[in-house]
Specification:
Order of helices and strands: HHHHHEHEHEE
Strand content: 5-15%
Number of strands: 4
Mean pLDDT: 90
Strand order of the largest sheet: 1-2-4-3
Structural class: alpha+beta
Largest sheet: 4 strands, mixed
Number of helices: 7
Distance between the termini: 57 Å
Radius of gyration: 26 Å
Shape: elongated
Low-confidence stretches: none
Number of domains: 2
């Protein structure tokens, strides 16, 4: 029986992506607790040792191997990172912001490669454009959302995220 639990646990750990997400989001639930499968392995190991079950100990090699393959690399120090590739800062600037220039300077001081602003309103857009122009020469504003980038932007387009209950004319970029 213990060996059976070990094999089932190894199967769930190894083939968790094949578990359907229904009923009740079972697949997502299993993936959420997947790292904790290691605790179940330890519990099964203790029970197998107490019961002196050689078959269960051999069967435990399966879930141990799968768990170590999946999560073991996270337990040892890895290589030094090669540095950052892209840093993004996002901020809801509020349509009631009384100091858009100061807000823009604070965001630019973060050193981010891309600045995403939400809740932009027409009178403030110019202030943000002026304050961010030196550090972020590439920008696009759609609706109440703006992106300022140190790198060229291409293929910008509006994404329709409007809820069905909201009338036409509502745009959030």
């Amino acid at each position: 029986m213990l060996a059976g639990f070990a094999v089932v646990l190894g199967g769930v750990l190894g083939f968790h992506r094949l578990v359907p997400n229904w009923p009740g989001r079972l697949g997502s639930l299993i993936e959420s607790f997947l790292p904790w499968g290691g605790v179940l392995v330890v519990v099964l190991l203790v029970v197998a040792l107490v019961r002196r079950s050689a078959v269960a100990l051999v069967a435990l090699l399966l879930p141990v191997g799968v768990w170590v393959d999946t999560f073991g690399g996270l337990l040892v120090p890895g290589e030094e990172s090669g540095g950052r590739e892209l840093v993004v800062v996002q901020h809801n600037v509020s349509d009631e912001n009384r100091d858009p220039g100061g807000t823009a300077r604070a965001l630019a001081d973060s050193g981010a490669d891309l600045v995403a602003l939400e809740e932009l309103v027409d009178p403030q857009v110019t202030a943000y454009e002026k304050a961010l122009a030196a550090d972020y020469p590439h920008h696009v504003v759609r609706g109440t959302v703006g992106l300022w980038s140190k790198h060229p932007l291409s293929g910008e387009q509006v994404v329709d995220i409007k809820p069905r209950s909201v009338e036409e004319g509502w745009s959030r970029g």
